[in-house]
Amino acid sequence: MTDPKRLHVITWGCQMNVYDSARMADVLAPLGYAPTATADDADMVILNTCHIRDRAAEKVFSELGKLRRIKDARAEAGHRTVLAVAGCVAQAEGEALLERAPYVDIVLGPQTYHRLPEMVARAARAAGAVIETDFATVEKFDALPEQAATQGLTAFLTVQEGCDKFCSFCVVPYTRGAEMSRPAMAVLAEARRMVAGGTREITLLGQNVNAWSAPGTDGSTWGLADLVRALAAIPNLLRIRYTTSHPRDMNDALIAAHRDIPALMPFLHLPIQSGSDRMLTAMNRRHTADEYRHLVGRLRQARPDLALSSDFIVGHPGETDADHAATMALVRDIGFAQAYSFKYSPRPGTPAAGAPAQVPEAVKDARLQELQAALRDSQAAFNATSAGQIVSVLVTGPGRRPGQMGGRTPALQPVHFPGSASLIGTEVPVKIVATTPTSLSGILDPGFLVEELARA
Ligand code: SAH
Ligand code: SF4
Ligand code: F3S
Fold first, then answer.
1. Tens digit of pLDDT for each residue in 92-122?
2. Maximum distance among all Cα pairs of the chain, rounded to whole angstroms
3. How far apart are CA 85 and CA 342, in angstroms?
4. CA-52 nearest atom, ligand 3
5. Which 8-state DSSP code applies to residue 438?
6. For residue range 300-330, what is the model confidence (pLDDT) as tens digits?
7. Which residues line ligand 1 (CB under 6 A)?
8. Percent of residues, the chain, with pLDDT higher than 70
9. Which domains are seen in the chain, by residue range?
10. Does the reported pTM lie above 0.70?
């Protein structure tokens, strides 16, 4: 028996980091590490970092300063704390991170966490710190343990790592390495384990997940549509989603899958970044705004209730008022159900960071405000269309107020309604009686209640 030890993981960044944090906990479980909610009593702390925007590294050092104080206090009380920095800042900074924070024991990139047990052992033996920042993607997935812990009612499943697109502004190809798709067999096995553990909704993850392509169970090469179809056959897996998709990789088979596979939810996160063709070219996105409009038209033809989400960047180098106006026009044309928007943030080592014509901060601020106001209106309008409708809700837990349950619609809108905890983990029909710009509230469909009573 290994001694029980406590592990605290702090996760920043995208859903892929959320998935990775859960896997790091899995690989450490056989060493006796069980999760704890605070750093104060942890024998090991992992800070899983993100490098996508803003002063990512500064934020890491400020958090590390706090963790160092905890580590020192615990050392005085005779306890050792292993401090690890993982994720995209660890990958980007490597050695430099240790120079500035020599009290860190382990620095590991996103493709090496399967080697954590060995790193922990080395850190315990050696006086110095341990660094692992290879891109060992294939080895990583092969070496992961079969998950034991239950992943929750809704869970993420990474099916693809890395990115080969090299958008002008983005660090991901440098921090996550080359694009790699996991074989269908491995994905299906992991999904079945998750469902056996109680998961009812799976979101497939990848930076270009719609470009997923790998050997299928029949030996032929599958695309994401084939993978979704195979997943949909797993009993008790009620809902399937995937994110993030690139407009260029949205193929006919996947569009048809939205029409033909009921478990595939009618929600699509399809980042466009800008509505200006000049900016799309500068960003190396390799499609036009009208191609995006046309694609959305085809998707809506296949699935009329499809809710669309997107990402936008304002103030990419060279962006003019006319370019920004083109983004505003696109937002009005599409009618997004929700979207994320960011001020362009220069990332070290990316082409756009060194480009001339950087946009002044005040201009970025003004453009972001205007865009976010329009996106808020668009989301409110989308939510308002749910009033009076009966929507299917996957119940995930208690709602906002006592006596309420909460969950999400197929379009990912949060819903609250009076109900009992026995509904958790099931899909129920809810009649929407009120909407806000960001959520819905309702009552269980009276017809459903009658059926329930009849069954009881
Ligand atoms: N693979 C996804 C994006 C991953 S990053 C895609 O291709 O869409 C998530 C979002 O962060 C991006 O869509 C973009 O809108 C934003 N982002 C990335 N780099 C950024 C930067 N340097 N400044 C501001 N926003 C950025
Ligand atoms: Fe970054 Fe572009 Fe790759 Fe998305 S597609 S991760 S924005 S380089
Ligand atoms: Fe951030 Fe890395 Fe994800 S930079 S957004 S954690 S891929």
1. 999 999 999 999 999 999 999 899 999 999 8
2. 70
3. 26
4. 4
5. S
6. 999 999 999 999 999 999 999 999 999 999 9
7. 52-53, 169-170, 172, 207, 244, 246, 271, 273, 311, 313, 342, 344-345, 347
8. 98
9. 5-136 (3.40.50.12160), 139-384 (3.80.30.20), 390-455 (2.40.50.140)
10. yes
